[in-house]
Amino acid sequence: GFGSAGLPRLAGALLDHFGPSEWRVAQRWLVLSTLVGLVAGFFVRMRRWDEDECEVLPDAASPDSSASVNVDGDGPLLDNAREQADKPPSVKELVLSWRYLCSVLTAVCYGYHYYASMYYIVPYSRAQGQPGGHYSGYAAIDISQATTNMLIFGIAQGIGSLCLGFVAERMDKYVLYLGCCIAAAVASLAFAFVHTVAAIASLSAIVGVFSAGARLCFPSLLAEMFSGPSLGTMMGLTLAGYGIGAFPAPPLSSVFIHSAGGNYLSTFIVMSVLSVASGLIAFFGMRRFRPAPTTA
């Protein structure tokens, strides 16, 4: 969240320094700035962890415990509960299961909404008051104000992660995920009806907070869904759905906008529908396969 708040300002400063015609040079410097994360990850990887720092789960809470798996309605995953209790499901069996299909569809829909949100905030702000454009009748918003809206979006994500992380510990995570997706969808659709800097900034903050909440919940849902020796692989395969959804988001949004003569309404509608779809698939699909509670 805080990272996405800082990079747009850095990008704007680089463009001002090199000029719009030299945007490729600015892009190279921007890419170099992202290597900070790679360097940080390298040093984290080099750290030697002491054994007493690692928490060891008791046998009753072990991810491999047969009591933590619910196979009802999971189709081709395994033949019966006894076989599942004796042998953890393989990656292939999990990928062919309904729980994986629900999980990856949830990620794809959310990925589209999230990355479309990052795409439209600045262009939509800049579209206000542009001569000959669809929003020419409104007050113009300059590039500094437009990038500030993106800054607010990033800060709101950081705040949302902190606040909703606290909430997630005290309520059903599936309910929270659905609520975040619906709230983000409503705020995204509301963009079509606001045209001032203050209103766009307010909606950017709302979308940022609840987008962060959804992104915060999802990995914990996956950890619960695929607990076992294949957890890391399954989380990677499922979170790849973010990329699948993100890939078409900017170009499709651009197509919708240009085909509508500069009107962003169709883009906001598609985003909102997919955000709600992500929440519904998680609530009615993934939730069906949540592990059965263990009994003492």
UniProtKB/TrEMBL annotation:
Pfam families: MFS_1. Residues 1-290 form the Major facilitator superfamily (MFS) profile domain. It is a multi-pass membrane protein. PROSITE patterns: MFS. It is found in: Membrane. InterPro entries: MFS (IPR011701), MFS_dom (IPR020846), MFS_Riboflavin_Transporter (IPR052983), MFS_trans_sf (IPR036259). Keywords: Membrane, Transmembrane, Transmembrane helix, Transport. It comes from the Eukaryota. One of its GO terms (cellular component) is membrane. One of its GO terms (molecular function) is transmembrane transporter activity. The chain crosses the membrane at residues 26-44, 97-115, 150-167, 174-193, 199-218, 225-244, 264-284. This is Major facilitator superfamily (MFS) profile domain-containing protein. The lineage of its organism: Eukaryota, Discoba, Euglenozoa, Kinetoplastea, Metakinetoplastina.
